[in-house]
Amino acid sequence: MMIDLVGFDGDDTLWHSEGHFRRAAAGFEQILGRYVDVRDAAVRTRLNAVQRANLALFGYGAMSMTLSMIETAVELSDGRIGGRDIQRLMELGKAVLQHPVELLPGIRAAVEAVAARHRIVLITKGDLLHQERKVAACGLAHLFQRIEIVSEKDEASYARVLGEFAIQPAAFVMVGNSMRSDAEPVVALGGWAIHMPYHVTWEHELEHGVPAGHPRVLGVQGADQIADAVARCG
Ligand SMILES: [Mg+2]
């Protein structure tokens, strides 16, 4: 079946994102160091666990991470964390929300090349306002038929988008950096995926059930390989 619709992920596919979250996590560790021995307390591990436990309630993104940093700080400091340090944690979260949008190398040309041949849609998750701002600032929004900001990138979300475009899954390919969010649910529906790994990935996104060498998952090393990979799908 010919490819009829191409989906693009936003964070760490169109623009840099995870590095900003990593910087906030490093700042969190530094602040917690005033209360606990950060190595003994396994601060990063605990923050990750709290973030993942909170996903179902708070969703993805920097606001959710900020609340999880505060929760973890109160827990690990046994309630001793001061108001000023809570304020510093808030500032770390706000910095993630306010960083300038920086496109990945070559992605503008790649999106333009794919858009010249196919209808394209942006499918992203995270804080609604933050994602809207990044979409507005990225300079690519006009190329997309539709911008979908979803709370979870699962089979139901992709099936809904494909249904709205009246597209068979086999005529759809999703381009993204996360096997868990961009590839697994799409290939489960019968679609295609192009995986472009980013140099850092949140632990949560590394867990997935796509077997190595899946025939409908193509790997690329950079944006300049995306258009060719799309041509090899379908
Ligand atoms: Mg991503």
Structural notes for this entry:
By secondary structure, this protein is α/β, with parallel strands linked by helices. The protein folds into 2 domains: 5-16 and 102-231, Rossmann fold; 18-98, Putative phosphatase, domain 2 (DNA polymerase, domain 1). Helix content is 48%, strand content 12%. The protein has 10 helices and 6 strands, in the order βαααααβαβαβαβαβα. The chain has helices spanning 18-32, 43-58, 62-76, 83-98, 107-115, 128-138, 155-164, 179-189, 203-206, 226-231, and strands spanning 5-8, 119-125, 146-150, 172-176, 192-195, 217-219. A 6-stranded parallel sheet has the order 3-2-1-4-5-6, sandwiched between helices. β2, α6 (128-138) and β3 (146-150) form a beta-alpha-beta unit. The model has no long low-confidence stretch (mean pLDDT 96). Bound molecules: magnesium ion (MG). Magnesium ion binds next to loops.
